[in-house]
Design goal:
Chain B: This is F-box domain-containing protein. The complex is a heterodimer of chains A (174) and B (193). Chain A has 174 residues and is mostly helical. Chain A contains eight helices and three strands; from the N terminus they run E-E-H-H-E-H-H-H-H-H-H. The chains are: A mainly alpha (174), B alpha+beta (193).
Chain lengths: 174, 193
């Protein structure tokens, strides 16, 4: 792992960077994995995050960051291949299996993840978690969605408004 | 709260995949309705989710076309698919309903009216607005014979039918009907005289 710094954070060689979570935990990961984050990529390309410095991430706690990095490490090889044109079907199936397992988690963790993915601009992860939350919404009535997501019950005015709309869009409710 | 972030919520709602789910989500609260009503959002939604094929109309000879549902449709599409399958239920077999064309969820029908003339109807089985238009059309067609002389019907097609009925009601001039008749037998295009 002690390869000389190539100066190119994208080549998948073992250049390491350090990320520091909001609760001051340090994570050392390959630059290629951390570079899945568009936000971090620029800093890393500039040579940041190496040595004792570390890149502070004040918006991401350690539990969330370790989960985010788990995703990045798994997806980094495919991303390094430029969207994996030469990936085998087995590789893709394995990634898909990983993704499915990965989002099989508590709602609150999902929310932290999507927030982190949004802030760090990790497109694949944001899309994966958004899809998972969307699946929780799919096929439910507006009231069921509210309950699933832990919204307070609607006020009488809101309820009246919802009922009026439901009449108007009957085809979506039959 | 994560869902307070409009960008993230938008990314989530983009992925509910079906228009029925999107409409339901739109009613969760005003903010959600606002987000999913935005033209840019709707454009992205359409780009990301191509509309599912609900089924096919099968046209047996001398019978009303039947709608065959695609297998394994999600439950929430059942109602809207039913709408497509029952869209032609109102026509008796003697109307000889024939589907001339089917495009973007709309049908152009050719049918034989009670007065034994050709009628052309634009029908959108999934769209309430156009279906109401058709309802009016059908009413015009079915009232015709009762409204008087059997020869009263120069062909009403699409929305033109109603206006024409009024003209005839007022003028009742046989000559003007006679002049119009040549246009009647033509294709749908002739409806726009």
């Amino acid at each position: 792992m002690a390869a000389p710094e190539s100066g190119d954070g994208n080549n998948g060689a073992a250049r390491m960077v350090t990320l520091i979570s909001s609760d001051n935990t340090r994570f050392e990961v390959e630059a290629a994995a951390a570079s899945l984050s568009q936000t971090l990529q620029l800093t890393i390309l500039d040579g940041g995050g190496g040595g004792g410095d570390g890149i502070p991430l004040p918006n991401v706690d350690s539990a969330t960051l370790s989960k985010v990095l788990e995703y990045c490490i798994k997806h980094a090889p495919a991303a390094a291949n430029g969207g994996a044109p030469n990936a085998t079907a087995v590789d893709r199936a394995e990634l898909e299996r990983f993704d499915n397992e990965f989002v099989n988690i508590d709602q609150s963790v999902l929310y932290s993840l999507i927030m982190a993915a949004h802030n760090l601009e990790i497109e694949g992860l944001q899309s994966l978690v958004a899809k998972k939350v969307a699946d929780m919404i799919k096929g439910k009535s507006p009231m069921e969605i509210r309950r699933t997501l832990g919204f307070p019950d609607p006020t009488p005015e809101e309820q009246a408004e919802m009922n009026a709309h439901m009449l108007e869009y009957g085809w979506a409710y039959e | 709260m994560v869902l307070d972030n409009d960008n993230i919520l938008g990314e989530i709602l983009l992925r509910v995949a079906l228009a029925t789910s999107l409409v339901r989500a739109a009613l969760v609260c005003r903010r959600w309705l606002h987000i999913v009503s935005h033209p840019a959002f709707l454009r992205r939604f359409c780009d990301l989710n191509s509309p599912p094929l609900l089924g096919l109309y099968i046209q047996p000879i001398y019978e009303i076309p039947k709608f065959a549902l695609m297998p394994d449709l999600p439950d929430e599409l059942a109602a809207i698919a039913h709408r497509a399958s029952s869209a032609l239920d109102g026509y008796p077999p003697e109307n000889n309903v024939f589907i001339l064309s089917c495009l973007n969820g709309r049908l152009i029908l050719n049918l034989c009216g009670p007065d034994c003339r050709d009628y052309y109807v634009l029908l959108s089985p999934l769209d309430l607005g156009l279906q109401m238009g058709w309802g009016k059309m059908a009413a015009v067609a079915s009232q015709r014979p009762a409204a008087g002389k059997a020869e009263s019907a120069a062909s009403p097609r699409l929305a033109v039918g109603k206006a024409e009925a009024e003209v005839e009601g007022k003028g009742g001039c046989g000559r003007s009907r006679g002049q119009r008749r040549p246009a009647v037998t033509g294709s749908l295009l002739s409806a726009s005289w």
